[in-house]
Amino acid sequence: MSIIQSKKILQNSLGLFSDDSPLDFVYEKTSKEELSFIGEKLTRGRHKIHPYPAMLHPLLVDYLIKNYANKNDVIFDPFCGSGVTLLESSVNGYKSIGFDINPLALLIAKVKTENYKIEELKKEFLGLKASLLENFNTDIPMINNIEYWYKKEIVRDLGRIRFVLKNNSYKYKDFFLVIFAFICRNQSFTRNGEFKRYRVKEDKIDNFENKVFEKFFQHIENMIYIIKDSAVPKEKSYPMLANSEKNTPKINYDLVITSPPYGDSRTTVAYGEYSSFGSDWVDDLNCYGGNAYKVDKESMGKIGQIDENIRKHSILVNTIKRIENFDKKRAGEVFYFFNGYYNAIKNVVSKLNENGKVCFVVGNRTVKGQQIPMDQITASFLDSMGLKFENIFVRDILNKVMPSQNSPTNIIGEKSNTMSNEYIVVFNKN
Ligand SMILES: C[S@@+](CC[C@H](N)C(=O)[O-])C[C@H]1O[C@@H](n2cnc3c(N)ncnc32)[C@H](O)[C@@H]1O
Hints:
Blueprint: H1 3-6, E1 8-10, E2 25-27, E3 30-31, H2 58-68, E4 74-77, H3 84-91, E5 95-100, H4 103-112, H5 118-134, H6 146-149, H7 152-167, H8 173-186, H9 202-206, H10 212-229, E6 237-241, E7 253-258, H11 271-282, H12 292-298, H13 314-324, H14 328-350, E8 352-362, E9 366-367, E10 370-371, H15 374-384, E11 388-396, E12 421-428
Parallel strand pairs: 3-11, 4-5, 4-7, 5-6, 7-8
Antiparallel strand pairs: 1-2, 8-12, 9-10, 11-12
Helix pairs in contact: 2-3, 5-10, 7-8, 8-10, 8-11, 11-12, 13-14
Bound molecules: S-adenosylmethionine.
């Protein structure tokens, strides 16, 4: 038995399945304390320009690139979001490509990975500031329930910024637009720390201060300072509007570093809804187009044609059965999500160059009290597509101490709170 084969344990030997269950494996996991990056902030450097849900940790991506990328490799992220993989690739000297269905996320990724001439950027900022202080015209887009989400004076001041951005040409317009999008969210009545649209409590509304200009200027100044001092992107990045489940543009790559959604947008993160405060104001000015509300409908996990091959993955089938015992509808939603995920992985694998590697960073959430072993499901999918198992690293994401040995939790239905962990599933095409 080769080393790689020995890392897989035949599931049926654990007596977990009935005789007619398809056979499958569990894949061994390795705890890696140094990947927990205790005390190291997630949002750092250029990534501070605009927050985004479920961002990859930049230091993790940097580690994976340093360990797995070879000279002249192209790095790909099929769910690039705000572009952590893209920026870390380009500062490490690798060309990178990212797909996402969220236009605002792509704009953030584009702006993060651009090269800036600082003096020109500063000059444009001064010009923009002057135009804003002397111009009182407003351009307010049609936004449903705008008065429910914003104070009147805030709408006016956001409208003034939008007017100036729309009616002037700036070399670094996208940079200002992304910061404007952030301020539109920050100055709305949405609750901090929520991904969905929840309004702050009534008592906070009266005291809500209009800080549109102050925050807009301050954030631009901070970002100019950060860009001046941070590593310069050395290679180009290509964020692209594309759905990874579908037939995607013709590209090839050598290394995949990605963090897919962990479930459908209704019950996990609604990326579109999160982005809607910014995109309501910048959609028509965004070079990737608009309509954040469509993003959640397009997100992975839509009801569609089932690829029968996914029924061969007992780890998935048995997970669905466990959820079905509690809630058939939810079980169906999870099944459709993994059907979409399977299609996306099939697309990713088909364009991976020989000797390439993939790193999928996933979490094992629970549905109806049942844990979904997304790390094992991902490994099972990749294995069935001919890739070879290399490792599943476990990292702590709540800064808890990790066991230093191989994790003993290769057991389906493990009870620990694994959302405090992230799993990095690594396979190769050797
Ligand atoms: C976990 S987030 C990625 C975050 C990203 N790693 C970052 O650092 O910002 C998952 C992303 O997948 C995107 N997404 C969901 N379904 C998709 C699909 N079918 N094709 C491409 N992207 C999709 C979402 O819009 C979201 O931006």
